[in-house]
Amino acid sequence: MIKNIDKRLNxxxxxxKKENIKIPDTKKKFLQLIITEMNNKLNLLNxxxxxxxxxxxxxxxxxxxxxxxxxxxxxxxxxxxxNDYFDEVYTYDSTTIEGNTLTLQETALVLNKGVTIxxxxxxxxxxxxxxxxxxxxxxxxxxxxxxxxxMILLDIHHLILKNIDVNSAGKYRNxxxxxxxxxxxxxxxxxxxxxxxxxxxxxxxxxxxxxxVILATEMHERLVTIHxxxxxxxxxxxxxxxxxxLQHGFPVTNISSQNNSREDYYNCLETAQxxxxxxxxxxxxxxxxxxxxxxxxxxxxxxxxxxxxxEYFYTKCLEYSNNKxxx
Length: 327
Ligand SMILES: Nc1ncnc2c1ncn2[C@@H]1O[C@H](COP(=O)(O)OP(=O)(O)O)[C@@H](O)[C@H]1O
Ligand SMILES: [Mg+2]
Known about the structure:
This protein is an all-alpha fold and 327 residues long. It has 14 helices and no strands.
């Protein structure tokens, strides 16, 4: 792919003539930037570097979101393939965090070829299939403009646990639970109903006020802290977060199960619960949203032969690059 750009750039004029198209100046300059500053490999972290302050990360997210919007409508074969790939990775990571042992390749095989993996339990297969189904379901909800409410939450939880734990699927718990490895003790089951009513009240009161990334983060954190289900709280709350992000035009945001990401995720949840400090969790999720936007943009900005899209993004990148040089 990158080689492809390189080839195009070496003879960008020839390319334009041959294809009989005119690549806008900003896109040309952007492609030049990749070659000169990034050794032929687009790395948006160069332009949107890691930041400590939440407000600055949210500003970057805002810019990256507007950038993504400048490529709309997002359609075509390369976009469909990209979405399928992200869905596989997200399904793999969200089930791995929770203990599933299928590899990414095995997850993709189960989803795309319907094969079973020798030596792996039926339960592990269902976890993968169910998660993808729940993900497809939230996309439908977004497409149909359905509002988030209790029924939707229980439907998603039902999809996650169906064929696995029929008695608990789609129902709040009626026993007390512990979160392994955590100091946080979820509330007794007697309080779950009330706390969940408050949860939805919070959503109704804040859905049009809060920054959407913060809203999605809050609905994720509040849900896992109440822990309303016997199992599947993590997967369900990550899907609710994504439902809200998708409703606001963000791409699916993944929390990786690799490297230290899972530990970081647990640590900032623990800090939110035991030290009454949500700032680390807010930053953690904002950075994950930023990463999702960057991954998406890194692919769509150099692929596809669309020449009229992405003006905002290309201009923004050139602006960031100029500012960086001045610093
Ligand atoms: N302090 C905490 N430490 C670790 N995980 C926590 C903590 N508080 C809430 N959680 C959530 O609990 C989830 C695990 O709960 P569980 O019901 O087993 O969900 P799932 O089966 O989907 O993983 C984690 O993925 C995480 O989202
Ligand atoms: Mg579990």
